[in-house]
Amino acid sequence: MISYKPKVRGAFSDRNKIETINTIIQKDDLDSRTRNGIVNLVDFLIETLEHKCSLDDFYEYIYKAIFCLTSDEMPYYPSERRKHIVDGVKNEWEYHEIFSFLEAILKWYKEKYYDDSIYTIFNSLFEKECVGYRFINGEITDIISKEEIDEIEEALNTKYNACNKCISKALSHLYDREKPDYSNSVKESISAIEAMCNIILESKNSTLGEALNQLEKNGWKIHGAMKNAYSSLYGYTSDKSGIRHNNGIDENTTFEEAKYMLVSCSAFLNYLIQIYEKQ
Length: 279
Description:
About 65% of the residues lie in helices and about 5% in strands. By secondary structure, the protein is mainly α.
């Protein structure tokens, strides 16, 4: 049954956690918002094709090459043909079957019309809906691994509330469906490590660079390469215009940079906690 209910990211229900909308990366499934978005984009593709050619060629390719059926098994009316696709995307197909379908129809479209702009449109939907995949060179490719997701989820659920809040904010900024904020995501990722360092040092407001030096003075043995790596990350956020200044505003920060920082800082936070609790 169709549910005519508002599902607005960041609106009252979501903001007050009464009925939340997923912000964690979609990896092994696709929620109803994403499935509906895909249906809408497939309809957009069909409308585009109506102005270019007969849709018979498109549907014949789908039923014969993708569904592997015979001509007599293909419905006569276009509305019935569309219904099979809509039912599949919305209810019947697993996420990997949807991806296989999309790869096939977009490849057909690109080869027929020498137009690959449609990939950008689908990638925009994937980014908006927190899907952990993108079209790269015509194929849907994993942009975040299970191990990376595990690191983030572990960092979200520590016993240290200040750290959890920073990682949660970084994640929310990165995967905000309506208005992602990549620079503030980076800022919060670094802040999570700083918060843990301040807990360890029983201090306040130490920057990451200061905290790493103080940890070593207090007898912590941090591998030189690891220390240099995170000192460099801190230097990157300090030097990059706006991230640690002007409330984190920097329109040039990319999704890829923010995702890398979130994963890296989550892993380092988990490492610091394990060492701290052992001592």
